[in-house]
């Protein structure tokens, strides 16, 4: 899409969302979402009831102040008694102090309740994310998920901190004000309430529109966050291919969408205080005019007029607060709904009641007629069968997209095959709990991931109960101890997740040490020596030889000269297992594997 770089573009009114969004989204389940939020709040039900009691007290004090003010004015007009006036003023000061104290206390307690609630929700969301299957994360952008953990949760937090108290206070104040006003003067009360239908008509027109735009604003905010996360993670690729201007333009489009939705959400919600102020002034004028006539004719006192003018503002202000909080609550509900949508995603759980945890395995792996597809009508594996004996090294070779990684994913139960069986030591892996199965596996990937913590803790991730001495022994076995010792703080040196500070080969050695510490029965290697210098490759190969000793190992191989000693080579093409055997056997057959091997050899000879 072409980008308009007109300098005046930023000051132009954004297109109306009805023009840009097309069909309006369905109305959210406000009641259901609020009920789910309450399910987290009710753990602090006692504190919440105390807050409501304090709200009741503060509302009573707020109603008592104007009433006593009117009484004071009447007493002052009827009998100018200085001592009585001082007494009344002292009482008024005490009422206002009590009102401020109860308001401060209720806010203090509600903040505590709100933070506990959001803490529990955020904990549940993060925990649930860890339990979701791999397929979920492949369909979601990381930045969008981060937005739900941060922006949406913070939106809920802000709303709980303020909106609950304001809504309760507004409802009590409105109810109490109407009762006292009716008692003082039914006529002036009717005139004051005459503006309410107009007020609610305007509010209905506004709020019918704001919910749609606040939801769109939250969605666009998630898109922006996701794009920022993606571009920051891939900044090297962006710079390598000189795509800075393209990503700037794409971000500009997403940023404009966020600006437009935010513009209309805030524009419509901004109508509310303006409408309230206008109607408040109209009400004030009516009360003063009609009240003056009634006072001249001795129907009401001056004090009643003073009380009514105060109550009229005190009546419309909570209506204004309710209207404003309605928009805030809608925005928070939109955020909470996005959070609960993630919580409603189905966990990666063991399906039946017969799954059992395994403590150890020998390492015999059998695939029987296994077929799998990530998406319907697009098969990734077709009727794959093979057997690996305990302690054997199995190499997976084939073009990109042949199904090598899929076999590993099925073996790890990141996915379950649609047909066929996968057996470990004769047991169908679907009868084994995922946690205990994966505890028997060690993985060394081509691009090793390191956590932003010390070298020691990165290695200890393979076995969280390992001692410092065991960590160092694993590093020595992996040929990583020498370079670790030369780091600024040795094993206590902080590493970065993107690998800054150490080489790619050193990261691989740390990953191998981590796998050694885990002491797995099954080992998975994804071409761990690719893009490594010769000396480091020798160290890695030596460490891998120690790691693979006595373990059933699956090696995803891209360079065929690294797997010539494998006990079994599986040759995959377009999801089918077309050849299997040893290196020498496959070369003798002069098939697809032989062609691949000779092609790679000829290229190396040319180089």
From TrEMBL:
Sequence ranges assigned to domain ABC transmembrane type-1 in this UniProt record: 49-331
GO cellular component terms, semicolon-separated: plasma membrane
Main location: membrane
Top-level taxon in the UniProt lineage: Bacteria
Topology term for the membrane: Multi-pass membrane protein
InterPro entries reported in the protein's UniProt record: AAA+_ATPase, ABC1_TM_dom, ABC1_TM_sf, ABC_transporter-like_ATP-bd, ABC_transporter-like_CS, P-loop_NTPase, Type_1_exporter
GO MF, one example: ABC-type oligopeptide transporter activity
Transmembrane segments: 46-68, 80-98, 163-184, 190-207, 284-308
Compartmental location: Cell membrane
Domain (ABC transporter): residue spans on this chain: 365-599
Pfam families (alphabetical): ABC_membrane (PF00664), ABC_tran (PF00005)
Keyword Nucleotide-binding belongs to the record: yes
Basic residues bias (residue ranges): 15-24
Keywords (A to Z) from UniProt: ATP-binding, Cell membrane, Membrane, Nucleotide-binding, Transmembrane, Transmembrane helix, Transport
Biased composition (Polar residues): 1-13
Entry keyword annotation includes Cytoplasm: no
Region (Disordered): 1-24
Name listed for the protein in its UniProt record: ATP-binding cassette subfamily B protein
Source species of the chain: Salirhabdus euzebyi
């Amino acid at each position: 899409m072409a980008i308009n770089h007109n300098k005046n573009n930023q000051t132009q009114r954004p297109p109306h969302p009805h023009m840009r969004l097309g069909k309006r989204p369905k109305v959210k389940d406000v009641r259901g979402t609020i009920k789910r939020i309450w399910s987290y709040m009710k753990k602090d039900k006692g504190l919440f009831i105390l807050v409501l009691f304090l709200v009741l007290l503060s509302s009573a004090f707020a109603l008592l102040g104007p009433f006593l003010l009117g009484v004071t004015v009447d007493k002052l007009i009827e009998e100018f008694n200085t001592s009585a006036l001082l007494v009344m003023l002292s009482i008024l000061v005490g009422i206002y102090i009590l009102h401020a104290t109860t308001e401060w206390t209720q806010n203090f307690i509600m903040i505590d309740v709100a933070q506990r609630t959001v803490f529990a929700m955020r904990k549940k969301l993060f925990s649930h994310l860890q339990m979701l299957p791999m397929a979920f994360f492949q369909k979601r952008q990381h930045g969008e998920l981060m937005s739900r953990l941060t922006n949406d949760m913070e939106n809920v937090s802000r709303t709980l901190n303020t909106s609950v108290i304001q809504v309760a206070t507004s409802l009590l104040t409105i109810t109490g004000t109407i009762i006292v006003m009716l008692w003082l003067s039914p006529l002036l009360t009717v005139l004051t309430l005459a503006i309410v239908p107009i007020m609610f008509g305007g509010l209905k027109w506004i709020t019918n529109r704001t919910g749609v735009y606040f939801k769109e604003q939250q969605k666009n905010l998630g898109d922006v966050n996701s794009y920022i996360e993606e571009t920051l993670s891939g900044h090297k690729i962006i710079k390598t291919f000189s795509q800075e201007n393209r990503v700037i333009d794409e971000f500009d489009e997403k940023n404009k969408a966020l600006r437009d939705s935010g513009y209309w959400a805030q524009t419509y919600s901004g109508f509310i205080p303006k409408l309230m102020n206008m109607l408040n002034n109209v009400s004030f004028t009516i009360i003063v005019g009609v009240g003056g006539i009634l006072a001249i004719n001795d129907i009401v006192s001056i004090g009643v007029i003073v009380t009514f003018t105060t109550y009229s503002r005190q009546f419309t202000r909570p209506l204004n607060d309710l209207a404003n909080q309605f928009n805030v609550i809608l925005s928070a509900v939109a955020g909470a709904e996005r959070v609960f949508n993630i919580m409603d995603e189905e966990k990666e759980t063991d399906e039946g009641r017969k799954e059992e945890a395994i403590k150890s395995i020998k390492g015999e792996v059998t695939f029987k007629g296994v077929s799998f597809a990530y998406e319907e009508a697009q098969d990734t594996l077709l009727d794959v069968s093979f057997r690996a004996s305990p302690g054997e090294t199995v190499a997976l070779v084939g073009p990109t997209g042949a199904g090598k990684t899929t076999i590993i994913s099925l073996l790890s139960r990141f996915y379950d095959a649609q047909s066929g069986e996968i057996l470990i030591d004769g047991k169908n892996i679907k009868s084994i709990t995922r946690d205990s199965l994966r505890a028997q596996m060690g993985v060394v990937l081509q691009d090793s991931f390191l956590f932003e913590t010390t070298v020691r803790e990165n290695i200890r991730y393979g076995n969280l109960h390992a001692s410092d001495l065991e960590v160092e022994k694993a590093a020595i076995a992996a040929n990583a101890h020498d370079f670790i010792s030369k780091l600024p703080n040795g094993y206590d040196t902080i590493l970065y997740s993107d690998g800054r500070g150490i080489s790619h080969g050193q990261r691989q050695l740390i990953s191998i040490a981590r796998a050694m510490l885990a002491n797995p029965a099954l080992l998975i290697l994804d071409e761990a020596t690719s893009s490594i210098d010769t000396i480091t490759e020798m160290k890695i190969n030596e460490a891998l030889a120690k790691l693979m000793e006595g373990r059933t190992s699956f090696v995803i191989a891209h360079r065929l000269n690294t797997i010539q000693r494998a006990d079994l080579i599986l040759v995959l093409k377009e999801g089918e297992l077309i050849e299997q055997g040893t290196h020498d056997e496959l070369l003798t057959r002069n098939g697809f594997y032989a062609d691949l091997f000779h092609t790679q050899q000829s290229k190396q000879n040319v180089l």
